[in-house]
Design goal:
seven-stranded antiparallel sheet; 1 helix; about 100 residues; 7 strands; mainly beta
């Protein structure tokens, strides 16, 4: 299946603990191409993974409330936290849905 490349503009929030502080937000791109997920930041590829390398893509929920951010946990144990570059929860949710459906 030759699916079109999907690209999402996000901020990388680093470790989960820094979500509620104000991290020096690094802007990057989550790109789905050829069935793989790639994350680019500052013109460099941070990671490229196959769906089988991904443990979870899910919203970050804190005491039952969505934080408007989400995480990608890789089977390697690494966790990346992101938020849509628009900073709107609706956009963040649509990125989660798009990534989940594209990486089934």
């Amino acid at each position: 299946a030759n699916t079109p490349t999907q690209q999402f503009s996000v901020y990388n929030l680093g470790d989960a603990t820094s979500i509620f502080q104000n991290p020096g937000k690094a802007k990057g791109q989550l790109v789905v191409k050829g069935g793989e997920l790639e994350y680019n930041q500052d013109g460099k590829v941070v990671f490229t993974v196959k769906p089988t390398d991904i443990q979870e893509i899910a919203p970050n929920v804190f005491f039952g409330l969505s934080t408007g951010t989400f995480h990608i946990i890789l089977n390697s144990g690494k966790t990346y936290n992101f938020v849509s570059s628009s900073l709107t929860p609706a956009d963040t949710n649509s990125i989660i849905e798009s990534l989940r459906s594209a990486l089934k």
